[in-house]
Amino acid sequence: MIDNPPPWPNGARCAVAFSFDVDADSVVHASHGAAAIDMPHALAHMRYDPFVATPRLARLFGEHQVPITCFVPGWVAETYPAAVEAILRHGANELGNHGHFHEWPSKQTVEQERESLERGTEALMRLSGVRPRGYRAPYYGLSASTYDLLIEMGFAYDSSLFADDVPILLDNGKGRLVELPVPASVDDYNQYVSSRAFDYLMKISAPAQALEVYRAEFDALWEFGGLWVSVWHPAVSGRPAQALAIRNLVEHMQARGDVWFATLGQITDHINGLVATGAWQPRVERVPFYTTPVIGNKP
Amino acid sequence: MIDNPPPWPNGARCAVAFSFDVDADSVVHASHGAAAIDMPHALAHMRYDPFVATPRLARLFGEHQVPITCFVPGWVAETYPAAVEAILRHGANELGNHGHFHEWPSKQTVEQERESLERGTEALMRLSGVRPRGYRAPYYGLSASTYDLLIEMGFAYDSSLFADDVPILLDNGKGRLVELPVPASVDDYNQYVSSRAFDYLMKISAPAQALEVYRAEFDALWEFGGLWVSVWHPAVSGRPAQALAIRNLVEHMQARGDVWFATLGQITDHINGLVATGAWQPRVERVPFYTTPVIGNKP
Amino acid sequence: MIDNPPPWPNGARCAVAFSFDVDADSVVHASHGAAAIDMPHALAHMRYDPFVATPRLARLFGEHQVPITCFVPGWVAETYPAAVEAILRHGANELGNHGHFHEWPSKQTVEQERESLERGTEALMRLSGVRPRGYRAPYYGLSASTYDLLIEMGFAYDSSLFADDVPILLDNGKGRLVELPVPASVDDYNQYVSSRAFDYLMKISAPAQALEVYRAEFDALWEFGGLWVSVWHPAVSGRPAQALAIRNLVEHMQARGDVWFATLGQITDHINGLVATGAWQPRVERVPFYTTPVIGNKP
Amino acid sequence: MIDNPPPWPNGARCAVAFSFDVDADSVVHASHGAAAIDMPHALAHMRYDPFVATPRLARLFGEHQVPITCFVPGWVAETYPAAVEAILRHGANELGNHGHFHEWPSKQTVEQERESLERGTEALMRLSGVRPRGYRAPYYGLSASTYDLLIEMGFAYDSSLFADDVPILLDNGKGRLVELPVPASVDDYNQYVSSRAFDYLMKISAPAQALEVYRAEFDALWEFGGLWVSVWHPAVSGRPAQALAIRNLVEHMQARGDVWFATLGQITDHINGLVATGAWQPRVERVPFYTTPVIGNKP
């Protein structure tokens, strides 16, 4: 099904990256501003992330020797350093830039967006000593300027798009970035979240049923040689029953075998290596996709 | 998975509290004000609660010797005293404060919120002779002042937050409160309610499927030693097919064994006892979570 | 589970009434007014009802010798007389009042509501020669005046409320009405409809899964002696796969046995007979539920 | 169940048409106008369609020797000609008119709608050399004028309505059109899409569960002799796991046998042949359905 799958290390059938958006309550403040402090229920729901869920998930993946990639807004890292330390302590895990306050990039000016990226990077560097090499847009809310900024600032990869089943390159004419795309359906909000505060009202899935969606994507990408990047939110999926379901999924993958478990940074390095040697040629997309409107006014 | 589970009485694996928000039609009046009287369909839907469902559920749990905790708004207790009497007659059940008219706390001034709490307490005392020791916020809609009020008024516990998998303490600098958290997914509205009047439109689950969500949470908390507090609304889950499913769940738990079925007040006493003797140290959170905005204006 | 189930004829375990809201495209006009004629897609979707689905369902139930109760707005009967004739031809079926244009009663003045009821009755009488004895409110949208009007106009029953698991009586001080309540979850819109035109966006169920909801309600009411009134819309549930699922449900009921299949009018007569002889005493509710607001202003 | 099924070629039990709305990112521009260029996430999601999904699906169906019908907006064909070439290369596939920019017809003036139809046709002719004979309204958003325009412009068929289970004829007094109706539930958006950008928030299905809906419709139409027209969007259903599920569905149909797999144009020709010889008489609907409002003002 996949036209041009990359060769994966050691003859693996596919690459698997578990990625976590460690938002904590940043998302409540980013969505509601000053009104957020009058929303203790939503705040407690999301503070479960750094206090309980992220350490639990870090330990779970560490025990299974599966590295994870965590996108942590700068403010979250500064406010909950112990959660970040748990991520770093339990394995060869990676931190990625996820803005500073989880601001919606396309609602910012270019200068505001640049500042959020810089503050996010600085906070992660202070805690980990390492400059984050990758980015995921808060709310998947990329602006038309995001890729220019990421390339200018030297980021190695982005992982925000439902753009392909294998890595692609994004080229803005001045530089390139590896894009590590996400399957459109593997986000835990649309399985587990029913909350007026998050403007998300829907039937909640039992964990076994929710994980069928993730597993179906994995089974297909394993069969055809693709890249499986899953997106999880610890406050949502790090609860006991949901974490158990993740453990079952990891064990399903390990039992199947021939899977390369990697961080997004490791996958980026592998892809860059293939491109440098000419061993594999990814699809290249020019960004931004459009510089002038296709339809001038909203019809 | 759970870092520091408390010891439960008699070596039980976990604690289980079935809690019911006995809202009756208070929620229609609270949401729609004077317009509510022109909504007979919504009113009848919710009056099913005191007239049919609450007595049924009280009897069902009484027969299974499982105590329940019922959060009853004061106005509901005054309007439907027979339902409250059924709760008290069928077992060692507990009444909790749920406001007076099921008003949304964060939409009230501090004085209005205090008055709702006082009127709710007075109504429950008049019927039961017992001062309610616990609270659940109507709509889960806690204000920034709620915990200050609860501590000032001497409440022993709250059960409104998705904050942890075990009890925690909330400390406002003047006093403390036991928080008995609820798993984020075990609320029956997101399985069974599809109603324009309640601004809730979604696919309705068959009871067997809905209960898989509750059961998965229980199975995980049983395995890891947590606290399972489930939230039900009699008008929603006290119908014959849904009540049968609850009965099946109770029997599943009883068959598994090593479960401590308790009211939230009993669990609070147990936790306070552990803290007093130093046998177990819960996590403590300072409330309110924030006193100044993290982000000043809504972005 | 059911406190006081009525005795059903011939020792049946429960009573079953399949009821259909034969709305055709009235609902498009009622919801969108003059704009409806510019919505051919929604109109065609609903015209499937009288042209294809209602005759199919009437035949299907006729073949299984199960009578049905069809609530038909007056305008629908006038516009699609062949559909009404199919209902009357295929069995001892009953027509019920469903307003004239499927207007939302609580959005009408009392005089407008009276006129809709009268026009609806006249249209059904012209076609069938029989005055409809029962009513279901369009959109379940009862007004505070509906029951006064129904009692004044001599209706024998209503079937709009999720008020109980067995028939009850509604009393306005001047007269009484039998209420034949509907389980809260057995409406096909929340299983099968995903349409912007109807302001209903949700995941669509496979028929086998949707029917689990209806079947679970039946199984429980059969066990405990209740009344099962199901609500279907031919444009939604009269399509081939959905009609097949209904056939399977009917055959499940027939295989189980001891079921009294009846129209709502027959059930009303049975209840009135029990009341007259004192053989069974239903619960009585005073209507309207409220004459003054519980909470004066919308909070 | 189906009153008057047409005879299908070679004694087939039913006719099956897989149809694809190859929207690419036209739908983002059509819905958001100039703001679309600041939505890279939504654009990338939909550009997956021409770059990855449409070629994959064309090849998949080609390998199974099942022809497909693709509705392609003119702008999409001009912007992504390689995707259209893939459709034409992999089998006896057909292109249908889907407007030019995927504009919502009922929000256009008649002249704007005519222009969209003409530009859509011209673009497809330039690429394929063939004038499209069929139409599906973007967003299913037919205007009251659409059928007059289609008949005036010589279109042979439309496939936008949930109007019947077999082909019907639409007659405007000046000419006729074959309508090839779609079952109401077989659209992949309501199974797989959860996206704020598309104003579609719902629980996402695992592919095996989503396909149960399509398969139930097929099984019923196969049993009763109907027409199964399924609607898919490559960006949604052309991903590896979802495409695998489609492959399983095709193989289920082929294993069952006696299925006529055809393009919508081939089905139109077959129906016109039956009508011409008098071998079968379809139902005829007069269009537009209404020329004056049924209810004058929005109630």
The amount of beta strand of chain A, in percent, is 5-15%
Can you give the helix content of chain A as a percent range?
A: 40-55%
Give start-end ranges of low-pLDDT stretches of chain A. Answer: none
Give me the count of strands of chain A: 10
Number of helices of chain A: 11
Shape of chain A: globular
Task: Explain the layout of strands and helices.
Four copies of one chain form a homotetramer.
Chain A: E1 14-21, H1 26-32, H2 40-63, E2 68-72, H3 74-79, H4 81-89, E3 94-97, H5 110-128, E4 134-135, H6 146-152, E5 157-158, E6 168-171, E7 176-179, H7 189-192, H8 207-224, E8 227-232, H9 234-237, H10 240-256, E9 259-261, H11 264-277, E10 284-286
Parallel strand pairs in A: 1-2, 1-8, 1-9, 2-3, 4-5, 5-7, 6-10
Antiparallel strand pairs in A: 6-7
Explain what this protein looks like in three dimensions.
4 copies of one chain form a homotetramer. Chain A is an alpha/beta fold and 299 residues long. In chain A, 43% of the residues lie in helices and 14% in strands. Chain A has one domain: Glycoside hydrolase/deacetylase (TIM Barrel, Alpha-Beta Barrel). Chain A has helices at 26-32, 40-63, 74-79, 81-89, 110-128, 146-152, 189-192, 207-224, 234-237, 240-256, 264-277; strands at residues 14-21, 68-72, 94-97, 134-135, 157-158, 168-171, 176-179, 227-232, 259-261, 284-286. In chain A, strands 1, 2, 3, 8 and 9 form a 5-stranded parallel sheet that branches. Chain A has a 5-stranded mixed sheet with strand order 4-5-7-6-10, sandwiched between helices. Chain A starts with 13 loop residues before the first strand and ends in a 13-residue tail after the last strand. Chains A and B meet through helix 1, helix 2, helix 8 and helix 10 of A and helix 7 and helix 8 of B.
